[in-house]
Amino acid sequence: MSEWQVWPRLTKKRVALVNFFLISVIIIVQPKLPIPVLRPVQDFYDIINQSEPNKVAILAGYSDSIRGFEEIRDVYKACVMFLAKRQFKIIFVPLCQPAPIACESMVKRADIDRLYGYKYGVDYVIMPFISGEETAFKAIATDFWTAYSVDNRGTPIKDIPLMQRVHSFNDVNLVITQSSVPTVYDMVYRQWGVQYLGIVTYLSGGSASYYPQIVKGVCAFSAVDAAQFEFLTGITGEEILKQQAYNVTYFLPLIMVVANLIMHSKRTKAKGIALGRGEGEKA
User: What b/e sequence results for 164-197 when a residue is b if at least 16 CB atoms lie within 10 Å of its CB, and e otherwise?
Assistant: First the structure.
């Protein structure tokens, strides 16, 4: 048969249904399909994964709206869960007005109290927002107890067990900063990274490449980087499922193109053989 009978039947509707089926399989089964991991994301993962237990990590976030935090909620959740899995003591430092609400939401999404036995005040604490930007950043790093009088839930700093061991950034081992505003990174570099070189500061983007001595790893909190981080940690989230769904559905048009080329090649070959027989009969 010279014609491939399936090809004419692949209407747009049927192709869409096949894509829907493939995406549904990815979402339901959640297969561990491999994805390439970039070096900065691998470094970001490694510094957390290779750290000893009970280290203190600062998780600082800046976004101009709650929506901005919601757009990165999955990788933020994975980051919080992975820090808890590696037994880090986590201090959430909001760098903008919506951040305290976002931090409370992220902790609930990560569910570290139930999954990892974390206790508020002992294993993690959420600070309130204080204004001043770079001046505030310097004050926080210099003396927590002076910069803050209470945490975001109204508990005095002196009554929080975790804060008994953390008075300044000299008592901190890791800083992870996320921001939707590039100038915030420069403030962080100046007041945190440069002043406290003992801390390796990992940020989620910005001008990190200009500060190689300070920034050793980057997870840009973009869809692609988020999927890579979720893949490394084994914490399945929306971004890795999206990435795997995209990869699988992209195979369908590729298969269709390859199949078309194979069928075209077979038809051409068949016509050539038929033509050769016809010339032989005439001779």
Answer: eebeebeebbbbbbbbbeeebbebbbebbbeebe
